[in-house]
Specification:
about 160 residues, globular, alpha/beta
């Protein structure tokens, strides 16, 4: 289902528990639980995420999360529609800046768990082919994100 790597930050079992719980719920809600789709997660620093952002997106700035999907939205919908439960592949990669998550949790006045959970859900839906560039798409993506967090009992404070 997922693998977590650490790049210049200390491994942390709490991060891993949060990520596992959130991804499990995402897969369940999106009917992907029985698929062998893998999500690769890299937890890192602002400097590393900036370097990755520049290298792969030609954007020379740090951010909180980067998502690299391996499929188009229509391909994923086809897996689900055809109940392709044997499909084994990489759904995509997430890169999350843990210091940025900590900073944003403080800025927004909620827990680290809530902010990290949101980053994982947000990135998951990018891997699923959703985006938030247009208002209509943003509304759909936000509803899906909030649905997952609500089902996990992780609410905005």
């Amino acid at each position: 289902m997922h693998k977590i790597e650490y790049l210049e930050i200390e491994p942390n079992s709490n991060y891993e528990k949060i990520i596992s719980k959130v991804l499990e719920k995402c897969f369940e809600i999106e009917n992907l639980s029985k698929n062998s789709l893998l999500v690769s997660i890299v937890l890192t620093t602002p400097d590393n995420i900036r370097r990755i952002n520049k290298e792969y997106r030609n954007i020379d700035k740090s951010t909180d999360v980067l998502s690299f999907p391996m499929f188009e939205k229509s391909e994923i919908e086809e897996f689900i529609k055809n109940k392709d439960l044997e499909h084994s592949d990489i759904l995509g990669d997430m890169v999350i800046s843990i210091p940025q998550v900590q900073l944003q949790a403080k800025e927004y006045g909620h827990s680290f768990e809530r902010e990290l959970s949101y980053m994982v859900v947000h990135s998951f839906y990018h891997l699923m082919g959703y985006d938030h560039m247009k208002e209509e798409e943003k509304k759909i993506m936000r509803q899906k994100e909030e649905n997952i967090l609500s089902k996990l009992g992780i609410e905005r404070k």
